[in-house]
Design goal:
single chain, two-stranded antiparallel ribbon, 2 strands, 55% helix
């Protein structure tokens, strides 16, 4: 077996053990003990021992009493989804262009705001959870609540942040980030392959556009599975989304697909069902189950946000495109039921952490709850919603970008009354071949053309 990609074989094995339990394949205690017995340093590259245990995990049967119905095929997903509006209608071209500009701007603003504290949000600092560490950092600099880009000033507290190009002292554009890269990739896929694109077209664009150093976790494992299996002369029919998304890929329900939702939502503005379908094609070869559903749900929310501005209605539309009895839908419904009991966003986040804080800081489910909570408690106000999404911790740049994109689309560019907008100078400088520097204005114009092609093909 090939072990390659994001981390060493032993780490992949330990994460796979967690993942198998999560997806309804209970791991026996003796197998857990065997995995725990491997030494973090001595056995990190012990391919033979790790592969033997990995194969044992692969063979585990599913629990017949598993409480969720989580199909991985589009037809199966659609059979299990609740009723929904599916299509909402369109907008005048000038209004849509303004909203597309707002969406691109919002995504960049939210990403830039959360980028310096991404590591802090995921891992925490000094024994504090990420959310508390972020608050402490801001309080020590007299910047709480979050209202502007993070300062890199040393307050003598031992807390440090990264990404100096996104600090308030330096920021002048949106610097490279995967949360922006994949939205650009979606645009390129649709420009090059049209609305009939397949998952292999996405893989091809990745190979031609993204350096490996810009690809993480599930995406890194999937593209390496694909490239190690597909001959250069012709595609291999046996290489399926099941293989690329599962083989040595314990990240298959993490946030990587969820952050790729927006470009499909932009292209399908007003058509949440088609946005969810495009998202499925994008997600199916890197993720499984809730990893797929996270991208589908937010693509549908994104498409709807060009027409609808009520957060509860938007969330209901997103939930209508994923299985009603999956872990993500269950968590969202539970969170929505708890909202009336919370006096503010942080009371809500106390509940989220208590119930979903055991998940990885880059899991789909807990981060989705941060985004929907910031939409609700920020009252879809662009500035307030984006700031709350970053204060929520965990994957701060991902959540800031997704929230900013949704609320930016709902508001439109001309209504983005926020001090966070001007410092970016309408400019993105990514690490995507062919997009070395581009304005959000141009991206909105190109996305409008893609949207028109999608509508014409419908």
């Amino acid at each position: 077996m090939i072990f390659t990609g994001w981390t060493n074989p032993l780490t992949l094995l330990r994460l796979e053990l967690i993942q198998r339990d999560y997806e309804g394949h209970p791991v026996p205690e003796d197998l857990k003990r065997q995995v725990a017995a491997l030494d973090r340093e001595k056995d990190a590259m012990n391919f033979e021992a790790v592969d033997t245990l990995y194969q044992a995990l692969d063979r585990l049967p599913g629990d017949p009493n598993f409480a969720y119905v989580q199909p991985n095929d589009l037809e199966g997903i659609r059979r299990e989804r609740p009723d929904g509006p599916r299509q909402l209608g369109g907008l005048a071209e000038t209004d849509l262009l303004d909203k597309l500009h707002g969406a691109w701007t919002g995504r960049a603003v939210g990403c830039a705001l959360g980028k310096p504290v991404e590591g802090m949000g995921i891992m925490g600092r000094q024994g504090m959870r990420g959310r508390q560490a972020i608050r402490t950092y801001l309080e020590n600099r007299q910047h709480w609540p979050l209202d502007y880009y993070f300062s890199g000033v040393d307050a003598g507290d031992g807390l440090q942040i990264g990404c100096p190009l996104s600090h308030r002292e330096n920021i002048a554009f949106m610097e490279p980030d995967d949360d922006i890269h994949y939205t650009l990739v979606a645009l390129r896929v649709l420009e090059n392959h049209g609305p009939g694109f397949k998952w292999r077209d996405v893989a091809t664009v990745w190979n031609r556009s993204l350096p490996y150093s810009a690809i993480c976790t599930a995406e890194a494992q999937a593209i390496m599975n694909y490239n190690n299996a597909v001959p250069k002369t012709a595609p291999s029919d046996w290489v399926t989304p099941e293989y690329t998304s599962i083989n040595r890929n314990p990240y298959r329900e993490w946030i990587g697909a969820q952050i790729r939702a927006d470009g499909w939502g932009y292209a399908c503005a007003g058509n949440p069902e088609l946005a969810a379908e495009f998202a499925f094609r994008d997600a199916c070869w890197t993720h499984r189950a809730n990893g797929i559903y996270g991208e589908m749900m937010f693509a549908a929310i994104m498409a709807a946000a060009f027409v609808v501005s009520d957060p509860f209605e938007l969330i209901d539309i997103g939930l209508s495109e994923i299985p009603r009895n999956c872990r993500l839908a269950e968590a969202c419904r539970a969170a929505l039921a708890h909202v009336p009991d919370c006096e503010d966003f942080h009371a809500y986040m106390d509940w989220v952490e208590a119930h979903y804080g055991d998940l990885s800081g880059v899991h789909t489910v807990n981060n989705a709850l941060v985004v929907i909570g910031s939409m609700i408690f920020g009252r879809m106000d662009f500035h307030q919603s984006v700031c709350r999404s970053v204060e929520g911790g965990w994957d701060t740049d991902c959540n800031g970008a997704t929230c900013g994109s949704i609320v930016g689309a709902a508001s439109g560019s001309t209504a983005l009354d926020s001090s966070l907008v001007a410092p970016l100078n309408d400019t993105i400088r990514p690490n995507v071949i062919g997009f070395q520097e581009i304005s959000m204005t141009e991206l909105a114009e190109r996305t409008l053309k893609v949207h028109q092609a999608v509508v014409a093909n419908a």
